[in-house]
Amino acid sequence: MTEPVLESVGPVEAAGPAEPVMLVAPVKPVEPAEPVGGDGPVGDRLSAVVRSRLGRSLHVRHLDAGSCNGCDWEIAALLNPYHDLQRLGIDIVASPRHADLLLVTGIMTRNLEQAARLTYEAMPEPRLVVAVGACAISGGVFAGTYAGRSGIADVLPVDVRVPGCPPRPEALLEGLLVAVGRLPGRR
Known about the structure:
Strands 4-3-5-6-7 form a five-stranded parallel β-sheet. Strands 1-2 form a two-stranded antiparallel sheet. It has a single domain (36-181), classed as Rossmann fold (3-Layer(aba) Sandwich). Helix content is 27%, strand content 22%. The protein is built from five helices and seven strands; from the N terminus they run ββαβαββαβαβα. The N and C termini lie far apart (51 Å). Helix 3 (113-122) links the parallel strand 5 (101-105) and strand 6 (128-132).
């Protein structure tokens, strides 16, 4: 049985000078989503765009720059049989020298700044950077701490931001689709 989704029913004035309160009410249960792999609409578009822009697989290098690993688990979920990232023509690679796209999670700790720059510089042109999660985008709850930055944009040029804490695998696929769309077409 699936849990009901909560939907906002609008502001309600509280008795007295307090702020308006937002109430939520249960709605109908959500049906399980259709797989977004090679048979789903996002998967089909992503696979087609990757092949038209690159003429081969998209190679992604993941860089954890100080995350809680929530975003990393969602990235790992893209490799399971339900989403099957490799079926879409996307491979996770171990070396930045083979990567087209850098997928960064975490707040960008000060200890990883130089390593992140070197990783980015080792990537061949054209290269893309995708910030995954609230921490990579803005520092999240860790913004302004002594050990980290307020997101990765202070260190690397970010092309696409995928919001969430952590973002769902479907949002990651959509972010990859947007990022690949920024690549120049094949010559």
